[in-house]
Amino acid sequence: MNAIEKIMLENKAWASAKLHSDPQYFERQVREQNPNFFWIGCSDSRVPANEVTNTEPGEIFVHRNVANLVVNTDLNMLSVLQYAVEVLKVKDIIVCGHYGCGGVKAALHNQSFGMLNKWLRNIKDVYRIHRDEINAISNEDKRVDALVELNVKEQVLNLAKTSIVQRAWINNQRPAIHGWVYDIKDGILRDLIRVDHTYQLDPIYRYDENELR
Ligand code: CO
């Protein structure tokens, strides 16, 4: 049996185990999804949203990309964000980075990765803003981890800059946005920042309230 045949077989085993322990499980899943959380995480295979939060299918709406970025021209991210906020009406958005992130590490170097350069450019911009703070750290891994944390905070603020979030804040006082970092060494999530409708966003990024309603 090859690896791809094995995961198809594992799927059958998973489905029948689920059904065995909870005969109504799939009937309930079919009816609706009603997640309270929207997770924006890194594509890294070691940081699966449900697994590290011990949650079930149906509990977290998920978007993942390289280095958990919120890029304001990314139609994919914006579509998922709009659906999460306006249709699913999630109460919390979580931006979750992780220490040792390969995307962040790559952005700190000068190697060219072709098309990926355009994506990593966003992280280089975060570095540029915090250059002195990061350069003051002598250990390379610690420099990466400092940028991982600063990148999470920057992406939380990028969410606050979207009209989708600002409209929801004006009309519904939700969602709260949380910036977390996951430590691959111990499996623990750490809370870095929490931003909600009371946050004083830099005025240049604030849209006219009457236009948003
Ligand atoms: Co990563």
Contiguous helical run count: 10
Point out poorly predicted stretches: none
**CATH fold type of the largest domain:** Beta-carbonic Anhydrase, Chain A
Summarize the amount of helix as a percent range: 40-55%
How would you classify the quaternary structure?
single chain
Largest sheet: 5 strands, mixed
Question: What is the helix/strand order?
Answer: HHEHEHEHHHHHEEH
Architecture (CATH level 2) name of the largest domain: 3-Layer(aba) Sandwich
Shape: globular
DSSP E strands, number: 5
Distinct small-molecule ligands in the complex: cobalt (II) ion
Description of the molecule:
- The chain is an alpha/beta fold and 213 residues long.
- The protein has two domains: 31 residues, no CATH class; 179 residues, Beta-carbonic Anhydrase, Chain A (3-Layer(aba) Sandwich), CATH 3.40.1050.10.
- 49% of the residues lie in helices and 16% in strands.
- The chain is built from ten helices and five strands; from the N terminus they run ααβαβαβαααααββα.
- It has a five-stranded mixed β-sheet.
- Strand 4 and strand 5 form a beta hairpin.
- The radius of gyration is 19 Å and the shape is globular.
- The relative contact order is 0.13.
- The model has no long low-confidence stretch (mean pLDDT 97).
- The structure holds cobalt (II) ion.
- The site of cobalt (II) ion has 7 residues, from helix 5.
- The site of cobalt (II) ion (CO) has 7 residues, from helix 5.
Quick summary of this structure?
The protein is an alpha/beta fold and 213 residues long.
